[in-house]
Structure formats: C-alpha cells, structure tokens
Amino acid sequence: MSTKPISTPERKRGEGVKLVYEILRDDIIDLVMPPGSPIDEIQLAERLSMSRTPIREALVRLAGEGLVTTLPNRSTVVSNIDFLNLHTFFDALTLMYRVTTRLAAEYRSTEDLAQIRAHQAAFTHAVETQDALAMISTNRAFHAAIAEAGRNPYYTGLFSRLLDEGRRILRIYYSSFDDRLPQEYVDEHNDIIAAIEAQDIAAADRLASQHADQIVNQIRRLISRDRRQQIAL
Amino acid sequence: MSTKPISTPERKRGEGVKLVYEILRDDIIDLVMPPGSPIDEIQLAERLSMSRTPIREALVRLAGEGLVTTLPNRSTVVSNIDFLNLHTFFDALTLMYRVTTRLAAEYRSTEDLAQIRAHQAAFTHAVETQDALAMISTNRAFHAAIAEAGRNPYYTGLFSRLLDEGRRILRIYYSSFDDRLPQEYVDEHNDIIAAIEAQDIAAADRLASQHADQIVNQIRRLISRDRRQQIAL
DNA sequence: TGTATTTTTCTTGTCGACAAGTTTTTTCTG
DNA sequence: CAGAAAAAACTTGTCGACAAGAAAAATACA
C-alpha cells in the first residue's frame, strides 16, 4: 500500500466517503492491498486528511460487499480469497455470465451495443500489446457492459461482486498469462457480440457458457501450475 | 413505526449497531415502516438511547442491501418497491429458487433435511391456522434453509435479499390471501423436500421452477386485483 | 393575494475526544 | 533465564458538538 499523503486541500461535503471507498476498493481489487492486509483507520485518516468517521463508513460498505472483514474490537482486514470453496465462485460466475448475456441479447439497445463494442476494442488492444493488467480490467468492463444491457439490477449487483473477486484471483497470476488464450477470448467476445446483436438468446447463452468454462479452466490451470511450482520449491 | 422508547439500560460494546440494524430491518420487511418512510437519525438515537454513530452505521449497511435509500444531505428513507420493474425481481427470484433447490438436492446433509422439515412443519401449521403473516415468514425460512443446504454464499446472499423483498410485497396484500393456494404450497413444498432427500437434481429443478411460477403468478394476481379495486374507487 | 426573497429551523456529514478492549512491552518471580 | 503477571501503548466503538446544506417559515414586494 502506498503511504504517501494525498493532496486533498478542499473536499465537498459528502465526497469523503466516496473517495475513501473508491481508493480502498481499487487497492483491494488490484491487490495493492493483498488479502489479509490490516486496514488502520487512523493511518488512513491521516493520509487522506479527514476524520475517522467517513473512513469507517466506507469500511462498513466494503464489508457489506465482502471485500473487507471486520474483526470485532480488532483490526479490519482485506478479505481472504477462499481457495477451498472456489467451486461456489465458479458456479455462480458461470451462471451470471449466462443469464446476463441472455438478457443482453433480449433487451440490448443500439447504445448498449456501442458501449459493449467500445470495451471489446479496449480489450483487443490490451491483448495486442500483451498488457495482462489491462486485459483483466477491460475484460471485466466488457462483461459488466453486457450485464448492464440486460437491465436486471439483481444480476448486475451480484455479477459485479463476482467479477471483482475474479479480478483479484487473476491478478495473483497475471504474470503467468498464456499468450495463446487471450486471442481465443477476443474471438469468443466477438461471437458473443454477434449473438447479442442478432438477439439470438440461445446462442448467447451457449457462447457465454463456453466462455465461462474457458475462464474457469484457465484459472484452475493457473492455480494448479502455481501449486506445482510451490511444491517444486 | 412505534415510538415508544426501548429499555436498554446496559449494552455491550459493539452490540449497538446490530440492535439498530435488526430493529430497522424487521420494521422495514414487516412494513411497520412502509416504503418512503423517512428515518430520522436523532429520533432513533433517542428512542434507543444511543448516539447517532451506530445508527448511521446500521443505515449504511441497510443501504448496501437496498432496504433504505440515502438521499445526500437529506433524509434516509425506506426504499420503494419498484412495481414498474417487478419482472426483473420475478426473473431473479425464479432463478434463485431453481439453483438453490438444485444445489440443496446435490449437497444436502441429514441435518439440512431436518432443518428444512422443521420449517415446513411451521409453514404447514401457519396454513392450518390461516395465519397469513406466519405463512409469509415461515415460507421465507423454509426456502432460506434450502438455500443454506446448497452452501453457496453468493446464492444465499442474493436469495435472502430477494426473499426479503418478496416478503415486503406479500405483506402489502397479506389480508387478501386466497385460502385455496396455501394448501397447494404445502404440497409443493413436500414434493420439493422429497426431491432433495432423493438427491434428484432434475426433479428439484423442475419443482422449484413450478413453485416459483406459482408464487410469481399469485403476486401478479394480487397486484392486478388490487389495481382493479383502486380503479373501482 | 400571490410570488419572490430572506431568515430561521432542522437534518445530515464531519470532527475531535474519550471509553472499552486488545496487543505489546515491561516487570516480577521461580 | 523462562514463564506469568502487571502495565503501557495502541486500536476500535461510541459520544457530543459543530458546520454545511436543505426544507420550512417569515418577510418583502408586486
């Protein structure tokens, strides 16, 4: 975690919480603060030059989203990634990939398609320049845009949480990205876009399902490879 | 909302937030505080004889779950029920009914079954005594227990929110319950229990789907009937 | 009398301080 | 010197107070 103070000489009333929330959220998702990192309220308050009240409010919100864990009367820490129950994560992620893509095919507007295509362009660029970090974030934005087009807030809410959790997991292994897979992702994304544009719900469901399997399998491979390396040490 | 002060002479450190959270949550779900009700922090603080800090923390949590809406620099109010987009609610509810029941059939332990049966007994009793309010809450507990048996925290989290929202909607119409339908629900619940016990995933899925359709249709009927009455006035 | 403007009142957002626990350090004792 | 007990240092949870903004009331004006 960077400790340098952030210059916030003037802040509007009500923006403090938002600021802290977004800083912590980004730092947690990008693993700047790895799982288990303690979050010191006083330190944060000094760094952002504000009182502990807005800090605590942001922490309560983050706890509600499962990104931090509050240990009563003890420190708040960045939530751990539960590798033992990853299958529940994969299961929910796959389901949300499917239903959001289905709904997008059903309800997408022309503007939705433009948004989705813009994110896909960014993802393609990240793949071409082999920027693994950019791949992870643009991939998230691409699928979040699809979910938005589906217009079901219950799904977008859960899906966002799952995508964030997936980002954390991928960041751990981002250095060991295969450069063969990303191109496949680009192609699959394009197929999904085509199905959404054609409003072919069945195809959207099938493609999303396959895409989810690809990602799940990739994560599984990254984890097992990592485990082998650890044993080799 | 009842305004009588609650006797809380001594409270342990850290229990204040939990107390406020549960009181507000229950009052909102049971429509003691109907949608749109303003929540006055100072009034609440005086009634529970504590400062505004724990009150605000509880409100942030409730806002995270969508039960209250915070209007910046203005009052926090109980969230409205979005009747215009009820289809997104029905869609998500049906899906969660299905996946949680499927998973329960797959992973249920003997203790899970006992829990589920206990809730079903309570539901049956509520139907027999024609206690509509008890039907609503025991029905929720029954399905929540099934979801717990499926052991996917992402699903149980979303499902809980949906069940709570459904409880709010049903409470609005609780006086106009048909007395024919509840008996069907009892039978359907028993079929679902049988499928879960037999670990018949396909049957569990199918029954949950039918059950969800029943409930969705019932709510739709209650709403349209209510609308006709309003027009008749 | 009705509308615009100012003033007052009220509620929320933020702050600094203190109390209740927890962890770490120090001191005591065998 | 090792382990237990006591004390100090630190962190979190709660409080009362104040400032900023919004709603309501009062006033001015046509």
Largest interface comes to: A-B, 28 and 28 residues
Quaternary state of the chains? homodimer
The total of beta strands of chain A comes to 3
Percent helix among the residues of chain A?
Answer: over 70%
Taking the alpha carbons of the first and last residues of chain A, their distance comes to 28 Å
Unreliable spans of chain A are 1-9
Spatial order of strands in the largest sheet of chain A:
1-3-2
CATH class of the largest domain in chain A: Mainly Alpha
Helix count of chain A equals 9
Structural class of chain A: mainly alpha
Under the CATH scheme, the architecture of the largest domain in chain A is Up-down Bundle
Task: Describe the overall structure.
The first copy, chain A, is built from nine helices and three strands; from the N terminus they run αβααββαααααα. Chain A has a three-stranded antiparallel β-sheet with strand order 1-3-2. Chain A starts with 14 loop residues before the first helix and ends with a helix. Chains A and B meet through helix 3, helix 4 and helix 7 of A and helix 3, helix 4 and helix 7 of B. Chain A binds a DNA duplex (30 and 30 nucleotides) through helix 3.
